[in-house]
Amino acid sequence: MVYIYNENGGNVMDKVNVKSKIVVTLSADKDQWEDLYKKVEDNELYIDIIEYRADLCGGDQTADYLEDLKTLKEKFSNLPIIFTYRTCGQGGKGKLEPNEYYALNRSIIEEGHIDIIDIELFLYEDLRNELIDLAHDKGIQVLVSHHEMDHTPSLKEMKAFYQHMQQLNVDYSKLAVMPEDGRDVLKLLTAVYETKQDSDHHIVGIAMGEQGKLSRLAGGVFGSALTYGHIGQEAAPGQLHVQQLKALMEIYQ
Ligand SMILES: O=C1C[C@@](O)(C(=O)O)C[C@@H](O)[C@@H]1O
User: Fold this and answer.
1) 84 C-beta closer than 6 A to ligand 1
2) 183 labeled binding residue
3) Which EC main class describes this enzyme (predicted)?
């Protein structure tokens, strides 16, 4: 049998199957960054994209974030950078109010040396849409995200989230949910699969926690474009070290 692969590494017969890119989630206080740069260098083979989690970086200083981003870009110029400020309601530590969140993200878009920006779906519509347009004007891709930290919505609801996201003129649509059992993980993967069947968008689906690890490893088979890992300590429940992630993902691809 001859297998033909598309540019994403998936079988051409299967539009849904993609090779998920590995995103490493990074955060550190000022005095820990040197150690972290070293860890990124040591693990570069296992990383496709860097995510800078501003809300976990201590202080809420735009200037500090900009400085970190500039250094990251200088050191790892071949790795695209996602900027994420995750608010408390969405599983992060960020305490900014919507207008402050808007102002921070706007400054980062304008000066941040980033490639992709993570914008939360339920930010006020006008602020969110303005950030999306500003990012695109600057050539920055937009990843719109939504987290359900304590449950997994129904399949219908998850597909509706993805439909809503895709109507926003964004580049990536990401949903992260908390499963209670294997059935919830299957539901999330089904939502990704069924959405991806009719879509050329980058769809991302994550089932968090211990039960959800399957989605981080095999998400590509169902059409999930990104999977998130760590190089020190997990930034979200169920995250795996990027080395382990890459090794185990090979099984599915
Ligand atoms: O949205 C995500 C996914 C994530 O929550 C995870 O479960 O790996 C980790 C976050 O840093 C990232 O922004």
Assistant:
1) yes
2) no
3) lyase
Q: What is the ipTM of this complex?
A: 0.98
198 within some domain: yes
Residue 4 within a domain: no
Is residue 228 included in any domain, yes or no?
yes
Q: Is 173 close to ligand 1, i.e. is its CB under 6 Å away?
A: no
Report the CATH number at residue 113.
3.20.20.70
Whether 1 is in a domain gets the answer: no
pTM, two decimal places? 0.93
- Any atom of ligand 1 within 6 Å of the Cβ of 176: yes
- Domain residue limits at 224: 21-252
Q: Which of 15, 70, 136, 147 is catalytic?
A: 147
> Tens of pLDDT along 33-66?
999 999 999 999 999 999 999 999 976 589 999 9
**C-alpha to C-alpha distance for 66 and 72, rounded to whole angstroms:** 10
Span 184-215, pLDDT tens digits: 999 999 999 999 998 989 999 999 999 999 99
